[in-house]
Write a structure and sequence with these properties.
The structure holds two protein chains of two kinds.
Chain A: E1 2-7, E2 10-19, E3 22-27, E4 30-32, E5 34-40, E6 43-48, E7 51-60, E8 63-68, E9 71-78, E10 97-100, E11 105-110, E12 117-118, E13 123-129, E14 132-137, E15 142-147, E16 154-155, E17 160-164
Antiparallel strand pairs in A: 1-2, 1-9, 2-3, 3-4, 5-6, 6-7, 7-8, 8-9, 10-17, 11-13, 11-16, 12-15, 13-14, 15-17
Chain B: E1 4-7, H1 11-24, E2 27-32, H2 40-44, E3 47-50, H3 63-73, E4 77-79, H4 89-98, E5 101-102, H5 107-114, H6 116-125, H7 141-151, E6 155-159, E7 169-171, H8 177-192, E8 197-201, E9 207-215, E10 221-233, E11 236-242, H9 249-265, E12 270-278, E13 284-290, H10 297-304, H11 308-316, E14 333-340, E15 342-343, E16 349-350, E17 353-354, E18 357-359, E19 366-370, E20 377-378, E21 385-393, H12 396-409, E22 411-413, H13 419-427, H14 429-433, H15 440-446, H16 460-476, H17 479-483, H18 495-500
Parallel strand pairs in B: 1-2, 1-4, 2-3, 4-5
Antiparallel strand pairs in B: 6-7, 6-8, 9-10, 9-12, 10-11, 11-14, 12-13, 14-21, 15-16, 17-20, 18-22, 19-21
Helix pairs in contact in B: 3-4, 4-5, 5-6, 12-13
The chains are: A mainly beta, B alpha+beta.
Amino acid sequence: MKLEIALNGKAHQVELAQIGERLRCTIDGTPLEADAVQIGPGIYSILIDGESLEVRAEPDGGGLRVATGDQEWRAEIRDPRQWRRNRSGGSEAEGRQQVSAPMPGKIVRVLVRAGETVGAKQGLFVVEAMKMQNEIRSPKSGKVERLLVSEGQTVNAGAALAIIA
Amino acid sequence: MFRKILIANRGEIAVRIARACRDMGVRSVAVYSDADRCSLHVRLADEAYPIGPAPSRESYLVIDKVIGAARYAGCDAIHPGYGFLAENPSLARACVEAEIKFIGPTAEAMEKLGSKTAARHLAREVNVPTVPGTLDPIESADELIGIARKTGFPVVLKAVAGGGGKGMRSVERESELAAAWRDASSEAQNAFGDGRLYLEKYLLKPRHIEIQVLADQHGNIVYLGERECSVQRRHQKVIEEAPSPIMTPELRRQMGEAAVKLARAGGYTNAGTVEFLVDSERNFNFLEMNTRLQVEHPVTEMVTATDLVKLQMQIAAGERLPFAQEDVALSGHAIECRIYAEDPENNFFPSPGKILARRVPSGPGIRLDDGVYTGWTVPNDYDPMLGKLIACGSDRAEAIERLRRALDEYYATGIKTNVSLFREILATPDFQTGDIYTRWLDDYLREGRKFVTAGTGSDSKRAQSAALFAAALWHAGNGESAAHGAHECTPEPSRWKTEGRREQVDREPSR
């Protein structure tokens, strides 16, 4: 299985192959002297030349968050076998930004009106989740083109809240 | 001693209380909302009864339901934990009416000492120094501006019924006053059902140091040393330790005696905490009293070799304190981290969700008080604290070393946690030398995070290779289905798992 994996934006060619009992990983053409076992969902114990590393992998947005110890990377995986193209869809028109909910919660206050001009980092919404009120700020200065939620509404993580143009 | 205790709480503190009950041979009764049927406290208690829907206002905060469950189960006492109804005098009163012992102070003492404004009055009466500001709740916005000008900026607005930093705002200048008032008041109304606020002078770089007191029903009151709680984020304690790095025996005696004096003046019984702000000249000012068990009680337990929950039960049952002030000896050092389901890389947004995998630390000097397990979904409805990691050692340096080791061992996937923040804090020279104040962490986070820790010894190239290998395995295996919650506690074997491993490795247990 040949994959292209971008780790923090830098692309690597990774190949997985089964050799007898053993799983072989080749990175950028160099075979890795490593042994891997899966410990739990998304948890791998990897021994590289005797060094023991425990790696966690979990989906994060469209990609993967990979961490070991206190080091962490963002990984984007492209599988040439898969027909679906790399997700670059949903790109906004130049400069338009969608503000989405970073967590599930309830909109307790809408601080702006549609059509209003806002500054970067200006508060747009107050969302309550787990008893904490958090302010969601504008990613850029511009105009509130659309308000997609109202006070009292419950939203899921990732839900679109507003469009700033 | 009691036969059966109802625990009117959830999460790690409900688990903590259930464990104390088990130690003492007392039956424990959990209550749970619809969101908590699978929670650890329900699993660990001897009995458990539902008390309503997920919102706490319809379940954990409903006194009639709590009393009803206690009666139904035949409980002779109720432990309120912290938060929820713990500082609500109405529950203490309802317990008296129902002839069930409330494990805490009387309603009257709670009103005298738990109300921030009444406690400030009392402290003035008995000559315990207080932070400058109002002694009574502020009635109107007009009054507020006048008082703020008179006190001088910066000031801090606090909820009369408050605690845990909720309904609290610091205000640098007059133009921010109205918005802060609005936010703090609505937050207090939501959290405590009481939107009233009072005002205090915001002291420059004070330390938050609190004294643990214990008072039995026979007039004996002792203090169990102090806890330093100056590492806070937006007025929420993040790290607590005992003893305080700046404490001297003389200052401890003065603060301890002031705390005891206040507790005695308020007719206090059971465990309580008297909070002080201490300035750079080591002057202390009374801040407020928490008329309940504190989140950070374990650090005191570790350095005084006591079990505060057990002592609370003994006191409520009418027993005498088993030791006097001169028997209280401090030994070693303990530090606690509050582990939250929140994302330190994204403005500390809460990160509820299902815990897919978890590795918990253990070993010398480590105690983990938590209320979660692998496969459990952290609900959206409550405070996102998962639990507390406590490290102790013979001195502060050893406690820090052990805590760092334990933090390196800890991870949870499926949710985000603030564990990386603690590694970072522990690596700062300020924390290592104990040079901290209540706004230290907010300043540190705002000024940029300079002390990102070095890796845990693994060469970065190798770690990168491991990351790539793991990412490929995740893609090839069951990663995607795991991510969508297809697995409960037992992951189904991936097709690589069986082929890829040479030796049988046991799945890691969740505790």
